[in-house]
Design brief:
320 residues; alpha/beta; D-Maltodextrin-Binding Protein, domain 2; 6-stranded mixed beta sheet; 12 helices; 46% helix; globular; disordered N terminus
Length: 320
């Protein structure tokens, strides 16, 4: 028998996975979001999903799986079939902070997930209910010191950026403020507007209209530099030097997803982040598109895990 003919079946078997990857996707892709609809993570996901769907030729369905500060969604994707049809819009909480804050989380970010790209970085703002008699961070700290434990702050869940921002302020400012976790940014914001909590560290994607309407009072931004959206608003670092707590979102897939599929998802996600109307909508609400490489995002995730593990230990953080 001709040797080349004998090799044909073997070559066909080898070629099958490559062919299947080249035809990806052949059905809808599920983008899992760890928070309820209407929150900032959901907003970014719903901006990107239709743009990616258009380029991929298949639906990208946003699937909200709220709870445990994003850990439920993160674990679900970490344990999903590695075929590229289930991806995560991950957040600092479920992806990075959970590694040190929640030893029973059920997954290991660096082992079980494949970073695709960081989608955005987001400005967070320290806001209070109008009834709180503090006009700036210095006055807020003075109020907290005068009445330890009397103030409370709402967060979008344990281990989220709002939780981290609050614990970092308490640790650096040496004050006692009670943490009240909610199931997402929207419920935490509702609690603040109604006066159920005194303050929170809310994402600019959903808090901006409420600041402009006067329903909440903005004191400072949590990032290392002032926000272009609110240039007159100081940073917390201007009162507590070295303070910095910025949120971010990024796409990840199960770790064993083939690299060609990761590359395709990366390419279309980055294209979505470069669409002018997406850029305009994000920047007008204090979010900055990123779109880095899988390797760059992996290195960033690793650095975030290390960074926040230090705060978790130093501040003796726990889930409430």
């Amino acid at each position: 028998m001709n040797k080349s003919i004998a090799l044909l079946p073997l070559l066909a078997l080898i070629a099958l996975p490559v062919s299947a990857q080249q035809q990806y996707p052949q059905r809808a892709i599920r983008m899992v979001v760890g928070f309820p609809a209407g929150g900032p993570t959901d907003i970014v996901s719903r901006l990107m999903a239709p743009k990616m769907a258009e380029a991929l030729g298949q639906q990208v369905i946003v699937d909200n799986r709220g709870g445990a500060g994003g850990m439920i969604a993160t674990e679900q994707v970490a344990k999903a079939a590695p075929d590229g049809y289930t991806i995560l819009m991950g957040t600092i909480g479920g992806v990075a902070v959970a590694m040190s804050l929640n030893p029973n989380r059920g997954y290991d970010t660096l082992r079980d997930l494949a970073p695709i790209t960081q989608s955005v970085t987001v400005t967070s703002i320290l806001v209070t209910h109008p009834s709180v008699p503090a006009k700036n961070v210095k006055e807020l700290l003075a109020l907290a010191r005068a009445k330890p434990g009397s103030l409370n702050y709402g967060s979008s869940g344990n281990g989220t950026i709002t939780h981290l921002a609050g614990e970092l302020l308490k640790y650096m400012g040496k004050v006692s403020i009670t943490h009240v976790p909610y199931k997402g940014g929207s419920p935490a914001l509702t609690a603040l507007v109604s006066g159920e909590v005194d303050l929170t560290y809310e994402n600019s994607l959903i808090i901006t209209p409420h600041i402009k309407s006067g329903r909440v009072k903005a004191l400072a931004v949590t990032g290392a530099k002032r926000s272009a959206l609110f240039p007159d608003l100081p940073t917390i670092a201007e009162t507590l030097p070295g303070y910095s707590a910025s949120g971010w979102y990024g796409l990840l897939a199960p770790a064993a997803v083939p690299k060609p599929i990761i590359a395709r998802l990366h390419a279309e996600a980055v294209k979505a982040l470069r669409v002018p109307d997406v850029i305009d909508k994000l920047s007008s609400q204090g979010a900055e598109p990123v779109g880095n490489t899988p390797e760059e995002f992996t290195a960033f995730v690793r650095s975030e895990i290390e960074k926040w593990a230090k705060l978790v230990k130093a501040a003796n953080m726990r889930t409430d």
